[in-house]
């Protein structure tokens, strides 16, 4: 069984250039995560040898699907682990409102997404990380549910919905399990990059979406009577969503260049600083995706050796790297310059 380690950052990302690299790393991880065994067979390459050109050619760039939706989920998860104030503050507020049993403490996150449960060791790692004495806090009165047994059922997806208790029928839709640093009480959260796709369900307590002036969901925390969720809308453009969109546009344009996809519309052009990130990504078509991921991780920590707040790596869980499927390509090692 694969051993999986969840490592937590010690400090938030507090400079825009490093923040761009950190969010871009999350977006790239999401795309690596999305590679299926079928994809690896199609390109006849094991995961640890998939280069950026190959990854780009099979990219899913449709709006609110593929890299954007998955990238947003990863970025939110890692922002929580990194204690990014623009994310953890409203989420902490939503958690307090959702349950009187949760203390006013820093949120933590367990990445779930039942489609990942098929990876060797992933589900066991999630249950172990939550702890043997942890439990779920669903809607309504009554006893909470032991975390491990019910999450194991939820990992089977919608086909096992009839096996779930009535109070947690839809918990298989969970993207993140949210808790606090000193607690074992978990709330199920769904994360959507498009507010129109947000759905509630029994067992789900919190929804995380971007702010959208067009759909009148302002940044902050509200209770949505239609879904039954406490909805966290992350600020855009002067907040986390502005940062995410800038990084996503840069990565998506680099993917389009390397994979020879149709160019995105002009109004998705990234900022000047993010455009420099895009150009750097385009320099390494033959570097493996994992090498680029490592380089982005290194770049997110630049010049922090003498800083009192040292940003530690949020290592990708091992289950991302255990899919196996073989030609070797020599390429320059990716290295990203500081975005001044």
Notes on the structure:
- The protein has 340 residues and is an alpha/beta fold.
- The chain has ten helices and eight strands.
- α1 (16-34) crosses α4 and α1 packs across α8 (240-259).
- It is globular.
What is this structure's SSE topology?
Layout: H1 16-34, H2 37-43, H3 52-57, H4 66-81, H5 85-98, E1 107-111, H6 122-130, E2 135-136, E3 145-146, H7 147-154, E4 176-180, E5 185-191, E6 204-210, E7 220-224, E8 229-234, H8 240-259, H9 272-281, H10 289-299
Parallel strand pairs: 2-5, 5-6, 6-8
Antiparallel strand pairs: 1-4, 2-3, 4-5, 7-8
Helix pairs in contact: 1-4, 1-8, 1-10, 6-7, 8-9
Q: Could you provide a short overview of the structure?
A:
With 340 residues, the chain is an alpha/beta fold. Helix content is 35%, strand content 11%. The termini are far apart.
């Amino acid at each position: 069984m694969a051993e999986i380690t969840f490592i937590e950052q010690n400090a938030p990302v507090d400079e825009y250039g490093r923040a761009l690299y950190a969010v871009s790393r999350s977006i790239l991880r999401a795309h690596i995560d999305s590679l299926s065994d079928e994809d690896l067979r199609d390109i006849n390459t094991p995961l640890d040898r998939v280069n950026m050109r190959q990854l780009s050619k099979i990219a899913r760039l449709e709006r609110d699907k593929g890299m954007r939706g998955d990238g947003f989920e990863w970025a939110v998860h890692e922002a929580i682990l990194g204690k990014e104030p623009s994310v953890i503050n409203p989420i902490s507020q939503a958690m307090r409102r959702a349950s009187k049993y949760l203390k006013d403490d820093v949120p933590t996150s367990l990445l779930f997404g039942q489609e990942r449960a098929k990876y060797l060791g992933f589900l066991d790692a999630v249950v172990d990380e939550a702890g043997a004495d942890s439990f779920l806090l669903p809607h309504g009165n009554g006893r909470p549910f032991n975390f491990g047994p019910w999450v194991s059922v939820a990992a089977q997806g919608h086909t096992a919905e009839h096996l779930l208790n009535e109070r947690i029928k839809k918990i298989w839709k969970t993207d993140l399990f949210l808790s606090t640093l000193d607690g074992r009480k978990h709330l199920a959260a769904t994360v959507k990059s498009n507010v129109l796709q947000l759905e509630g369900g029994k067992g789900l307590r919190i929804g995380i979406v971007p702010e959208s002036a067009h759909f009148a969901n302002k940044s902050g925390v509200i209770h949505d009577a239609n879904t039954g969720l406490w909805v966290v809308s992350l600020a855009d453009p002067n907040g986390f969503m502005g940062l995410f969109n800038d990084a996503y546009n840069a990565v998506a344009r680099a993917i389009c260049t390397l994979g020879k996809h149709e160019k995105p519309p002009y109004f998705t052009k990234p900022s000047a600083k993010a455009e420099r990130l895009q150009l750097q990504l385009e320099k390494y078509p033959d570097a493996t995706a994992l090498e680029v991921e490592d380089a982005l991780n290194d770049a997110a920590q630049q010049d922090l050796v003498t800083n009192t707040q040292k940003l530690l790596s949020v290592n990708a869980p091992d289950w991302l790297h255990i899919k196996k499927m073989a030609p070797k390509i020599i390429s320059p090692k990716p290295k990203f310059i500081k975005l001044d």
